[in-house]
Amino acid sequence: MANPIFSSLPTTIFEEMSGLARTLGAINLGQGFPDDLGPEPIRRKAADAVLNGYNQYPPMRGLPELRQAVAGHYARHQGLDLDWEGEVTITSGATEALTASFLALIQPGDEVVLFQPLYDSYAPMIRLAGGVPRLVRLAPPDWRFTRAMLEAAFGARTRFVVLNNPINPAGVVLPDEDLALLAELCVRHDVTAICDEVWEQVVFGAARHRPLIAYPGMRERTVKIGSAGKMFGLTGWKVGFLCAAPQLTHSLARAHQFLTFTTPPNLQAAVAWGLENSDDWFTTMPRQLEASRDRLAEGLRREGFAVLPNQGTYFLNVDLPASGVAEADRAFCLRAVHEAGVAAIPVSAFYEEDPVISIVRLCFSKADAVLDEGVRRLAKARDLSRRAPSPTA
Fold first, then answer.
1. CA-CA distances (angstroms) from residue 66 to 57, 90, 322?
2. 116, 188, 201, 202 from 214: Cα distances, Å
3. Which pLDDT belongs to residue 393?
4. What pTM was estimated for this model as a whole?
């Protein structure tokens, strides 16, 4: 018999929509990967490391040079004082880092507070570890939680909270007062925070990312997760960072060693070089993505779509009812890819409970011509939705 935690799961919405885009030859504004190839010097370092470097098993916890570079990066950019030897572990992507965190720390019956909309790996892996998800529902346009929402979710059996900030798919960077409130509840209830901060460098305008680990009382009770793939727009590299106090890191590393054990050494070496030599990238990359965001938003507004605010990530959201679209978001996305040739993601897929929402997520880390054509096709899909029945799933 198959494990029902996994056998009952559908194909992820990202794989479904990207698969349809490939099959139908559609523009893919669904899955979050850039059209840009990523920083050439870092890619050259990876290629050189394959040809001329070490290609055997690297240390389980990661190359020392990369762990040092991670600690140095967070010291420069976020003011954190991390001990690279005792508090940094390299993983095969942030999803593996999340899985290692859940399996290493959660015990059967522990309650884990999650915020919807949420990344689809959270709940299944928490359940695999024996945890019990407690869901807090965030909603547009601000996607924020309140003291009342947190106090209703935190209880006697709450042991963990999982926070994604900046939030995918909402495109929100949580403000200081929200993070301070969450830290207060974590300290009061003796709760450990597992922080998915993979979008920490993809932040725009006046918004500023603040890591929860830096708040009073959180240094010893936070697991901070980062992603080189998101930092450098190299999503296929799957190089992640686990940062936590030594007593947490001990267990995290033990779980990591039996999940992937290690990560390709050439990619680790290239990321280490990139973190030490790419401060200009962390300035120019957000500006370029902000320009792409604005181009997509302006094009959508010209076509009569209602666009929600965005402060970070690769994603812009469209409010379908406010845009004159009566279809549910999943039905609209299926119509868009089948009949108009553009793939998007229904935000209802990010809700495990009470997904009464009709928002479509679009990825703007694409070439200008792709964004412009995507707008044209989305307008076509909207016009078709007004006069035809929904396609079947």
1. 15, 8, 47
2. 24, 17, 16, 19
3. 46
4. 0.95
Beta strands (DSSP E) in the chain are 27-28, 88-91, 111-116, 132-137, 158-164, 192-196, 222-227, 240-244, 306-307, 315-319, 342-343, 345-346, 359-363
- Above 70 in pLDDT, residue 389? no
Six-digit token pair at 320?
A: 């379908």
Sheet architecture: strand order including 88-91: 88-91, 240-244, 222-227, 192-196, 158-164, 111-116, 132-137
- For the segment 332-351, what is each residue's pLDDT rounded down to a tens digit? 999 999 999 999 999 999 99
64-78 vs 265-277: helix axis angle to the nearest 10? 30
Which three-class secondary structure state does DSSP give residue 315?
A: strand
For all residues of the chain together, what is the average pLDDT? 95
- Can you read off the two tokens belonging to residue 139? 């909603």
The pair of three-digit structure tokens given for residue 40, joined into one six-digit string? 């050439």
DSSP assigned state of 165: S
Angle at 116 between CA 110 and CA 122, to 5 degrees: 50
Closest CA to 84 of 67, 61, 65, 66: 67
342-343 and 315-319 beta bridge pairing: unpaired
Strands 88-91 and 240-244: antiparallel
Q: Is the pLDDT of residue 89 over 60?
A: yes
Backbone phi and psi for residue 308, each to the nearest 5 degrees, phi listed first: -85, 155
Q: Distance between alpha carbon 88 and the CA centroid of its chain, in Å?
A: 20
3-state SS class at 262: coil
pLDDT tens across 164-223, in order? 999 999 999 999 999 999 999 999 999 999 999 999 999 999 999 999 999 999 999 999
Kindly report the backbone phi and psi dihedral angles of residue 326, in degrees, each rounded to the nearest multiple of 5, phi listed first: -85, -15
Question: What percent of the chain is modeled with pLDDT above 70?
Answer: 98
Calpha distance 337→318 (Å, rounded): 16
User: Alpha-carbon distance 352 to 5, whole Å?
Assistant: 14
What structural domains and CATH numbers belong to the chain?
Answer: 4-31+281-385 (3.90.1150.10), 40-277 (3.40.640.10)
